[in-house]
């Protein structure tokens, strides 16, 4: 058996659970080898409310991904979302004992430790610590302070916080599904990696990820995350409105929304009718498409206005905070007809639909190049950066020739991610790991990596002890 460094993302959503297996090719693009899509039965508004059903759904999705890719999945990067997520801005500083020495990793470590001492509300814990800008003595706006001289080192942080119980429930489901948790990340950040370019992040952009249970917001400016928010409404509440407004069952309401629904009621004529089969011998029900669009429009307007209030809270009308790249819509809800035009009408900001096709290659691009899979692609990219290497190749696959030709090579991708290539000497079944030449991480990556490593180890320890 051959072992290969592959990446696996697990999107635990309200309507679906997606397991995605991928691997970097020689051009730095992510090639998706397998996708498992299972109906999510135990999650509501991004939060696990039924452990048993969620475990079952995860196992179903993973089994489908394994069957398609030919890999046995051992560890995954999981997305965290839900209405319990909130973010805060925090400013921290340290006074250095010897300003004649340059700022080093040890100083960054002190900053991380200071942030970890923040007092949260009861039941909350920090998920992400995202550095924004540094200040050395009186010099502000510094992105990379390592190597500089100074007595006082300051930094502003975007801190993402969530409910401990919700995070641990998700971790418990992953573990009980027979998987190891190799990473945990906020879902809008994962979606941003999949659909946004670095130029957009520099110019200023608001990513709106419309999922089944929640709508997530992530705002970037000058290449830095500036604001995140979660609205506890998504595509499912639209389906529920259609179900109640048209007196039909949920399955029919979902089909109506996806096949005939529109966020802009003005396009439908009064005489446009769709017929819905009756239940158990009842007469068919006729639904006016104009009325359908009015129901959808009312709820979508409410969701957009709630998100727009968060964009206003960020201060987008300030010239220094202007969103030059506009708004990018992604997630399953962004596939609703005419939603782009409605967002532009309400916000007055240029809008586009975000497709996760920039970072993926080959035939796999056709399969997952839908906004629906943006989070899954982003999580798989995050798994690739984590250099996960516990997945086992178990059977022949159409991609065999590529991996046989490249299994012993180590290269830097265009996205500067590093692959840890592995060889297996089948004669004595001894694994030989070929370690890559690693470049020094940026200060932002150092802070994120060190905090996350500490958080994840404590999280795993808690899950193990709770058995």
Write a structural description.
The chain is an alpha+beta fold. Helices cover 35% and strands 28% of the residues. It has 13 helices and 22 strands. It has a five-stranded mixed beta sheet. A five-stranded mixed beta sheet has the order 15-14-13-18-19, with helices on both faces. Strand 1 and strand 2 form a beta hairpin. It is globular. The relative contact order is 0.17. About 11% of the residues have low confidence.
Rg, alpha carbons: 23 Å
Number of helices: 13
| Order of strands across the main sheet | 3-2-1-7-12
- Biggest sheet layout: 5 strands, mixed
Class from secondary-structure proportions = alpha+beta
Topology (SSEs and partners):
Elements: E1 7-12, E2 16-24, E3 30-39, E4 43-44, E5 47-48, H1 51-69, E6 71-72, E7 75-80, E8 86-95, H2 105-116, E9 124-136, E10 139-142, E11 152-163, H3 164-176, E12 180-186, H4 187-195, H5 198-203, E13 205-210, E14 215-221, E15 224-231, H6 235-246, H7 250-260, E16 273-276, E17 285-288, H8 289-314, E18 327-330, H9 339-347, E19 351-353, H10 364-368, H11 374-385, E20 392-393, H12 400-406, E21 422-425, E22 430-433, H13 443-465
Parallel strand pairs: 1-7, 7-12, 13-18, 18-19
Antiparallel strand pairs: 1-2, 2-3, 4-5, 6-20, 8-11, 9-10, 9-11, 13-14, 14-15, 16-17, 21-22
Helix pairs in contact: 1-3, 2-13, 3-13, 4-11, 6-7, 6-8, 8-9
In short:
This protein has 467 residues and is α+β, with helices and mostly antiparallel strands.
